[in-house]
Amino acid sequence: MKIRLEVIKDVREICQKHKDEPSPLIVILEEVQEKYGYVPVELQEVISEETGVPAAEIYGVVTFYSFFSLTPKGKYVIHVCLGTACYVKNAQAVLDKMCAVLKIQPGQTTEDGLFTIEAVRCMGACALATAVSVNGKVFPRVESKDVEKILDEFRNQEAK
Ligand code: FES
Question: pTM of the entire structure?
């Protein structure tokens, strides 16, 4: 994947901005993830050059924490909760339906770059089980039959 030069320059600046903080790596990775939606290997190498942290160590951190992503996420990030309260309310069936409709697996993004599905642990909305969120908007008591309707809300936004 070709990373644009201005992105590389910006990531170098992010590194310089944080390099004197007590543990700069996580702060740098968080800022890059938030700004660009992912931290690909090419940018990890830039961060390694700027911070002196070995690239393999950075790769280990990025792949360990689910907050970080190696590939770009979709415009709409769907979280399906598989925590206990949701699980007993058939959350797995909701996740399976979501995956089947979008033809992707959890952690993947649709080819059009619109949707990413992620299975998450308790999102603190257990009374609303099964809880699903899309870019932070929580949908309560979701069942498999609601999946198309939820997706349509965001597909329609795109059609406008
Ligand atoms: S278990 Fe799903 S929100 Fe708590």
Answer: 0.73
